[in-house]
């Protein structure tokens, strides 16, 4: 039996690499003859650099940059050929901010701009920035300031102070810094910058904003949009990704591309799927969002395109059997169910994922030999 194990991270408990390894170990324990191809994946959020490095090789560069709260953090980006892959969450991710200090009015994306400048300085002609898992809501203002936008000081203090911007922001130096460089925002978030579906309203609460702060942050981003772009970039799909970092990148000539498509293409998923009997994917929470372009959906589609069955092993599953089947997913399995409780699934995630994978392996082995029966959980 040949299987491809291609999960996203289980946010908060397992990186994509750890999840893939746990599934492989569990499966092998029940089916030692299995040929397993491990392809841990990312949609541009946390894990982006690690999974691309695993798949592509290349050189990791380390840089000390401004963290989300203004203190330095160490971040790594990948250089493969003339392309640099930057993971914005390494510079300004939510996981970088202790829970009691979460405040999307204060956090800055400045470190992302410092990483872009570092990569361009190292000779990159193409810079792909993975967006997601951010702690920020500053429209990419900090990133732009690090690349030379003025007034720099007014742009690096987080999202809230943007409300006080009194004159147009001068983007000439930031655009000049990227002359001749292709800049790509890799994300599968299609939200605009502002309003009901914008960065503040949709992603502000997970970063610590209450309803009042969401309103204030949205107004501050509107002031930033007035000071930066009289045109329609604020409406663009993906402008609202990573607290508006998508918008900031669009302002300096960036384009938005699907992070899932970028990663699946870079790791060559289609070729591995074609040679497999079964594809396994997964993530922390497999819900209706997952069926709207998130990573497991992309993997399931790649499997369906080649007529290979796909199963999902997730922390929690909130997708019905029919919905999953319509997305080309044969079976879904939940760690919360197999471990017996959310607490157990969260606290013993690797061990429980190994056990679940072994159980699924026995069912598939049984089904293949005609002696067993598969069922959807
Ligand atoms: N081991 C686990 N067991 C159960 N649920 C998990 C586990 N790990 C993560 N989760 C759930 O998944 C959620 C994150 O969802 P995930 O799909 O990984 O990320 P995102 O939605 O940011 O892409 C967490 O908030 C948590 O509720
Ligand atoms: O960083 C963020 O603001 C959001 C959207 O880009 O990320 P995630 O989808 O990982 O919650």
Task: Kindly list the characteristics that best describe this protein.
Glycerate_kinase_sf; binds 2-phosphoglyceric acid; alpha/beta; Glycerate kinase, domain 2; six-stranded mixed β-sheet; kinase; transferase; 377 residues; Glycerate_kinase; binds adenosine-5'-diphosphate; Rossmann fold; elongated; 2 domains
Question: Can you walk me through this structure?
Answer:
With 377 residues, this protein is an alpha/beta fold. The chain has two domains: 2-40 and 268-369, Glycerate kinase, domain 1 (Rossmann fold); 48-259, Glycerate kinase, domain 2, CATH 3.90.1510. Helices cover 40% and strands 16% of the residues. The chain has helices at residues 16-30, 48-56, 88-92, 110-121, 141-146, 152-155, 172-177, 199-203, 211-228, 245-251, 259-267, 269-274, 295-305, 321-326, 335-339, 342-347, 349-369; strands at 2-5, 35-38, 59-66, 72-80, 83-87, 126-130, 182-186, 255-257, 278-281, 285-286, 310-314, 316-317, 331-334. The strands form three sheets. Strands 3-4-5-6-7-8 form a six-stranded mixed β-sheet, sandwiched between helices. The protein has a five-stranded parallel β-sheet with strand order 2-1-9-11-13, with helices on both faces. A hairpin with a 2-residue loop joins strand 4 and strand 5. The protein is elongated, with a radius of gyration of 21 Å. Residues 371-377 have low confidence and may be disordered. It binds adenosine-5'-diphosphate and 2-phosphoglyceric acid (2PG). Adenosine-5'-diphosphate is lined by residues 9-13, 283-285, 315-316, 335-336, 345-346, 349. This is Glycerate 2-kinase. Keywords: Kinase, Transferase. Belongs to the glycerate kinase type-1 family. It is an enzyme of class 2 (transferase). GO terms for molecular function: glycerate 2-kinase activity; glycerate kinase activity.
């Amino acid at each position: 039996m040949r299987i491809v194990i291609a999960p996203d991270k289980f946010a908060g408990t397992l990186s994509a690499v750890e999840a893939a390894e746990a599934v492989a170990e569990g499966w092998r324990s029940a089916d030692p003859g299995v040929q397993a191809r491990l392809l841990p994946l990312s949609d541009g959020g946390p894990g982006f650099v690690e999974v691309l490095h695993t798949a592509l090789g290349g050189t990791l560069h380390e840089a000390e940059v401004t963290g989300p709260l203004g203190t330095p953090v160490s971040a790594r980006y990948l250089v493969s050929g003339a392309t640099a892959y930057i993971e914005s969450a390494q510079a300004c991710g939510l996981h970088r901010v202790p829970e009691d200090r979460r405040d999307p009015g204060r956090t800055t994306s400045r470190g992302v701009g410092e990483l872009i400048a570092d990569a361009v300085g190292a000779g990159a002609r193409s810079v792909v920035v993975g967006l997601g898992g951010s702690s920020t809501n500053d429209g990419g203002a900090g990133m732009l300031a690090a690349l030379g936008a003025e007034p720099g000081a007014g742009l690096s203090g987080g999202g809230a102070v943007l409300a006080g911007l009194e004159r147009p922001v001068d983007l000439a130096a930031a655009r000049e810094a990227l002359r001749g460089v292709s800049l790509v925002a890799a994300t599968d978030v299609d939200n605009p910058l502002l309003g009901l579906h914008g960065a503040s309203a949709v992603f502000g609460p997970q970063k610590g904003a209450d309803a009042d702060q969401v309103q204030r942050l949205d107004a501050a981003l509107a002031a930033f949009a007035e000071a930066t772009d009289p045109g329609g970039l604020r409406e663009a799909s993906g402008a609202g990704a990573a607290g508006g970092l998508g918008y900031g990148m669009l302002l300096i000539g960036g384009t938005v591309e699907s992070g899932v498509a970028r990663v699946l293409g870079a790791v060559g998923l289609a070729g591995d799927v074609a040679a497999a009997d079964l594809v396994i994917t997964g993530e922390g929470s497999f819900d209706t969002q997952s069926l709207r372009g998130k990573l497991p959906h992309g993997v399931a589609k790649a499997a369906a395109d080649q007529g290979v069955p796909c199963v999902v092993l997730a922390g929690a599953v909130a997708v019905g059997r029919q919905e999953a089947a319509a997305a080309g997913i044969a079976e879904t399995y939940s760690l919360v169910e197999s471990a017996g409780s959310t607490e157990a699934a969260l606290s013993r995630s690797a061990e429980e994922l190994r056990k679940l994978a072994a159980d699924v392996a026995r069912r598939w082995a049984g089904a293949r030999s005609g002696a067993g029966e598969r069922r959807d959980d």
